[in-house]
Amino acid sequence: MSTATKKEHKSNRPARGGVATFIEAIRQGIWEEMERDPTVFVIGEDVGAYGGAFKVTDGLLDEFGEGRVIDTPISEAAIVGAACGAALMGMRPVAEFQFIDFISPGFDMLTNYAAKCRYRWGAGLPTVFRGPCGAGVHSGPFHSVNAEAFFLNTAGLKIVEPSTAYDAKGLIKAAIRDPDPVLYFEHKKLYRLPRLREELPEDDYIVEIGKARTARAGRDLSIITFGAQVLNALDAAAELEREGLDVEVIDLRTLAPMDKEAILASVKKTNKVLILHEAARTGGIGGEIAATIAEEAFEWLDAPVVRVASIDTPVPYSPPLEEYHLPQIKDVLEAARKLAAY
Amino acid sequence: MKTETKRKGASKQGAAKGRKDAGANGANGVTSSPSTAADGELICTTETTLGAEQLLELYRYLLLTRLVEERLVNLYRQTKVVGGVFRSLGQEATAVGTCYALESRDFIAPLIRDLGAVLVKGIRPREIFAQYMAKAWGPSEGRDLNIHFGNMEKGFIGPISHLGDMIPVMTGIALGARMQQKEIVALAYIGDGGMSTGAFHEGLNFAAVQRLPVIIIAEHNWYAYSTPTRLQTAVENLADKAAGYGIPGHIVDGNDIIACYEVTKRAADYARSGGGAVLIEAKTYRRKGHAEHDDQRYISAEELEMWEKRDPVDRFTRHLLTQEIATQAQLDAIVADVQREIDEDVAWAEESPMPDAEKVAYGVFDNSIVPPAFRPKIFGDK
């Protein structure tokens, strides 16, 4: 006797605005851009009938057809290369990596082809390369990476990573409209987090690439962070507020090109800086931020710049190991208290 | 059609390994058997749709390719070329003949040794000279070397040094064109070495799956830098690899410029009419080292001498004369015209200034959005 049942699946067009989760916000953004601009298309593994591993592209195939929603072989170099070629022809590809860990097989095409095309011969490539990043969901060493530092040292790639549903939608739309390659990283832990559900505007809007936002204003200490760690920073700030510390949280949103002005303005306001990121500490983006502050705001500092990040190991699978690997709120609290007392 | 592609006494590798007849090895098409003139010397295939005027145009491009490269070597020895010079001596017919089969709306991605294809696509020698000399008037304005640039209007997508990477890009060109209902063909060159890369496989596999009009010209010139083909691949013929992608593979004598044209013309018709990707192996030979600095210590004098006798320019010249398509005077006039163009274009390139140093900071991104990447002042802008 067969016990199998098959659900009839049909995804509806997402609402325009309204209350949305982080993932729904990304889906809305891609959908609206595909409606707005016939050159926008989606390419990646299992993005069609299956709607993507996390369902970011759910329903696009039914709506836009297989000419614009292209399932590929397991070939990240082909995905990136084909996106670049199509962009040269005037298309605007939105390429998905099933997990951002799998950006590594596309690394050569991204850093050598996509990043250098405009510089070498003036051929800007309006391309978006997106996918789920980040740890904390017990996915082990190959489904958890934060890849921004791999690309930070390559001129020609923009990198964005939102932490709110509003920014997720505004940044994906900005990335699709951008004339240059944009890496769009989505922390998978945020996708369906109830806390991030928010009312989005019905109107078309974008969030400008290259601009940080003040997630929480404060006077005593700045936490400079992005992505899922913004939530840890805000939680730590709430706790510290009870201790009488007024903490500012800067959400970078764009990692390259970085909003130096916003960072320096916050440093000049609070004079104490804690940099928080989820990627491993050594060679992480925190070093770049710290160096910028040391060079350009040294006289404004009342304490050493402190970094809180993952430890220098691959991301482990087992929950107690992963918890130790990742920066925790208690690590942020401890560092912030020491900074405040300095 | 007869399937023999390697003539008796072919290259040492080929002869020593006692290779089987190409057609018996699974590649499903060979363009032509070598034709010979009355004196037994090799000429090109006589089975062609090309008229005399086109054949003479082909001759001009072939000569232009060889003579531009010879001039580049002169400029290199005068230290006017900043980087290396990568010759296609002995294999020029492949690039010129295959590219000549395309239409102006089609796209190519050449390799470093496919200058001939770039010239057929309408890029002028002056651009090549300025580019090699790192001049401001070069198409990349000094940012990149040799034929590492592009021209979308002319259907030329310049390569990068990473072999294989252009196969996925050309797959994307064909994919984008299909979305725009443009019936173009995307032709990418690759070599016996470049076919060993992952990007080659990924790109061609994707093109094959999508039935995209992508033509791969596999230039089998026997060496990737110093590494012989037997250390690159275990297949008998590079065209045999087509079977792994479910696409047709053809073998052509890469030193027969007319055969190169004919096989590519048929492949382009097939690809354009919805047949999908095609792989063509052109068997030829690289008579110079990887670049001018390479002393070719890994090659025997006999091997070189043997391939000199198969020179594609000599062969096509003989063809045109013995088949009475052109007179020696006509050919001489073409050579003189090519020399004139080269002289003019070298003069133009020499006249170009070197780029302004600060231009280096521009163009990483669209500078109307992201400012140029100037070196920051120490201690900020105070």
Describe this entry's structure for a reader.
- The complex is a heterodimer of chains A (342) and B (382).
- Chain A has 342 residues and is an alpha/beta fold.
- Chain A folds into 2 domains: 18-200, Rossmann fold; 213-341, Rossmann fold (3-Layer(aba) Sandwich).
- Chain A contains 12 helices and 14 strands.
- Chain A has helices at residues 22-36, 60-64, 76-88, 107-114, 117-121, 148-152, 165-177, 229-242, 260-270, 285-296, 319-325, 329-341, and strands spanning 18-20, 40-44, 69-71, 92-96, 128-133, 158-160, 182-187, 198-200, 213-216, 221-225, 247-251, 254-256, 273-280, 306-310.
- In chain A, strands 3-2-4-5-7-6-12 form a 7-stranded mixed sheet, sandwiched between helices.
- In chain A, helix 9 (260-270) packs across helix 10.
- Chain B is an alpha/beta fold.
- Chain B has one domain (46-295, 311-354): Rossmann fold.
- Chain B is built from 11 helices and 9 strands.
- Chain B has helices at residues 12-16, 52-77, 92-100, 115-120, 125-132, 166-179, 198-209, 257-275, 301-308, 312-322, 328-351; strands at residues 35-36, 42-43, 107-109, 186-191, 214-220, 223-224, 227-228, 249-253, 278-283.
- In chain B, the strands form 3 sheets. A 5-stranded parallel sheet of chain B has the order 3-4-5-9-8, with helices on both faces. Chain B has a two-stranded antiparallel ribbon with strand order 1-2. Chain B has a two-stranded antiparallel ribbon with strand order 6-7.
- In chain B, helix 7 links the parallel strand 4 (186-191) and strand 5 (214-220).
- The longest helix of chain B has 26 residues, at 52-77.
- Residues 1-26 of chain B have low confidence and may be disordered.
